[in-house]
């Protein structure tokens, strides 16, 4: 057995089932080890950055350790954007890179760079393994750190280490289940802590519940808590879909790339006295106004201590399984739903807003209106659907008009806001959930950054649905320019391009029977389907001053 075989066995033991990467000479021994087994699948991406984003999206969905891999030199350098995105969104991920043999390191050999040093500038742990006896502790430490801290780590492996024999009787390389790192599982908070928070909530004026991505799976418990508190529920973008958006207490999204949400949603948070936050990364849109000063009290609920906010003051803190916290708080409150006039006002405003969408069906013969399209798309999204959003104006439309009622997760590049995220993310998620349908929404600019990954999706027969909002302009940037410059795109025929790759595709404009095309797209089960939605390049979403200040562009 070689060291490469040991790494494969170790990763299999911790539950890794795919490795997303791009090959090169220094990692050839590792690929040979993968070929000698069948439990871990090698997913050949078309760019290392895409490999990192695919693994990152899979980690965000599952909470499990994922792996991406690249070769030395340019391969590892190409990782950087995807690794930063993964780290900022706290994805438990291991990035492996190959290095030239140890005797060729450090004296200007071809594709020899100090990869551990390079990636240490963006990751909390980045190490090099240049001797076989280092491998076991470095691998254990890297995996343990990534999993327990929900962070991204890097380990560089010299080619001669990968080919080195480990010795059949060497106890160091024996995989002991008791030595395999696992995430720390915290106990629920003690009853006294829950009692204190319940008493605090009883005294608070106008409580608003805010939900982020770490509350995945807690939707029903949070909705019950909201009913008993009479509290509106607002989500961050990556928390969208966790709570049923058809529930009357659920009142929209704040803190997205561009317009933070409906005007009535913004008014609700501005009238709040206390924010009860479940698993929220970015608290600024919920706690501050345009002067960046904390205006609302914060009660923060988090699954781990290392995700607690250090920027804002908290009046109470609960750490532990979020569903147990939501259930524990709800059980201490009267079962009778508590009325709140703000909720009734929001429901009325939302109904009036949605009624306006029906008039958009005849918006234009040439272009489809995104609100009309997304409202029709809602009918096809069920509990087996996973949503991925890229970064751009299309994200704003999706946050507003997608209505998710079956706790469908929404995966997004929350902190870095990188364009080109959706297609690699669809690949990473679909391989992890083959019985689900992953649906991505991207702009034409972001899609063209990673268009080659259509070949990956076709090669692995992934039934992803990628929706392109095609308006021929980088609209988020154009909207901020006094005189538009350098933002108009000359696009190819996306339908013909997708079919050239071997995918199915269709175009949607103002005259298209949208339901007919969506039925065709969702019926496809053995290859990708691309929808080219033609949008009016002059259609914009205006941003108020407050909204511009909290927006991420």
Automatic annotation (TrEMBL):
Gene3D superfamilies: 3.40.50.970, TPP-binding domain. InterPro entries: DHS-like_NAD/FAD-binding_dom, THDP-binding, Thiamin_PyroP_enz_cen_dom, Thiamin_PyroP_enz_TPP-bd_dom, TPP-bd_CS, TPP_enz, TPP_enzyme_TPP-bd. Residues 390-533 form the Thiamine pyrophosphate enzyme TPP-binding domain. Its cofactor is thiamine diphosphate. Residues 198-326 form the Thiamine pyrophosphate enzyme central domain. GO terms for cellular component: acetolactate synthase complex. It comes from the Bacteria. GO terms for biological process: isoleucine biosynthetic process; L-valine biosynthetic process. Residues 1-117 form the Thiamine pyrophosphate enzyme N-terminal TPP-binding domain. Keywords: Thiamine pyrophosphate. Pfam families: TPP_enzyme_C, TPP_enzyme_M, TPP_enzyme_N. Belongs to the TPP enzyme family. This is Thiamine pyrophosphate-binding protein. It comes from Salmonirosea aquatica.
């Amino acid at each position: 057995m070689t060291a490469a075989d040991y790494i494969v066995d170790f990763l299999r033991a911790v539950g890794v089932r795919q490795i997303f990467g791009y090959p090169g000479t220094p990692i050839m021994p590792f690929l040979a080890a993968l070929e000698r087994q069948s439990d871990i699948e090698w997913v050949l991406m078309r760019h290392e950055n895409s490999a990192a984003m695919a693994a990152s999206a899979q980690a965000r969905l599952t909470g499990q350790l994922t792996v991406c891999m690249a070769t030395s030199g340019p391969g590892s350098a190409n990782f950087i954007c995807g690794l930063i995105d993964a780290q900022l969104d706290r994805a438990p991920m291991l990035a492996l890179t190959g290095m030239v043999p140890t005797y060729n390191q450090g004296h200007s050999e071809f594709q020899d760079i100090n990869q551990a040093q390079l990636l240490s500038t963006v990751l909390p742990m980045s190490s090099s393994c240049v001797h076989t006896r280092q491998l076991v502790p470095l691998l254990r430490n890297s995996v343990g750190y990534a999993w327990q801290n929900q962070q991204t780590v890097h380990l560089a492996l010299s080619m001669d280490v990968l080919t080195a024999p480990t010795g059949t009787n060497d106890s160091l390389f024996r995989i002991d289940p008791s030595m395999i790192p696992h995430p720390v599982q915290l106990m629920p908070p003690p009853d006294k802590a829950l009692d204190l928070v319940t008493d605090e909530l009883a005294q608070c004026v106008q409580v608003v519940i805010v939900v982020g991505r770490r509350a995945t799976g807690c939707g029903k418990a949070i909705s019950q808590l909201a009913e008993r508190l009479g509290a509106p529920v607002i989500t961050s973008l990556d928390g969208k879909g966790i709570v049923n958006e058809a529930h009357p207490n659920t009142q929209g999204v704040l803190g997205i790339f561009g317009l933070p949400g409906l005007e009535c949603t913004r008014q609700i948070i501005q009238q709040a006295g206390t924010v009860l936050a479940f698993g929220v990364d970015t608290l600024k849109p919920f706690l501050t106004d345009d002067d960046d000063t904390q205006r609302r009290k914060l009660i923060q609920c988090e699954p781990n201590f290392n995700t607690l906010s250090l920027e804002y003051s908290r009046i109470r803190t609960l750490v532990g399984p979020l569903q147990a916290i939501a259930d524990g708080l709800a059980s201490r409150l009267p079962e009778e739903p508590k009325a709140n006039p703000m909720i009734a006002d929001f429901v009325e405003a939302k109904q009036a807003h949605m009624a306006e969408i029906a008039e958009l069906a005849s918006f234009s013969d040439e272009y489809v209106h995104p609100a009309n399209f997304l409202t029709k798309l809602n009918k096809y999204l069920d509990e087996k659907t996973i949503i991925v959003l890229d970064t751009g104006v299309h994200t704003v439309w999706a946050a507003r008009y997608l209505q998710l009622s079956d706790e469908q997760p929404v995966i997004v590049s929350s902190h870095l806001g990188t364009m080109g995220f959706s297609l690699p993310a669809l690949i990473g998620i679909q391989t992890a959930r083959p019985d689900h349908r992953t649906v991505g929404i991207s702009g034409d600019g972001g899609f063209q950054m990673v268009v080659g990954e259509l070949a990956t999706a076709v090669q692995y027969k992934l039934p992803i649905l990628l929706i392109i909002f095609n308006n021929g302009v980088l609209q988020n940037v154009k909207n901020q320019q006094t005189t538009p410059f350098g933002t108009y795109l000359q696009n190819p025929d996306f339908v013909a391009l997708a079919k050239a790759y071997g995918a199915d595709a269709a175009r949607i404009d103002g005259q298209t029977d949208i339901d007919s095309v969506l039925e065709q797209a969702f019926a496809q089960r053995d290859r990708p389907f691309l929808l080219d939605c033609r949008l009016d390049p002059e259609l914009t979403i205006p941003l108020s001053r407050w909204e511009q200040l909290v927006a991420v562009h």
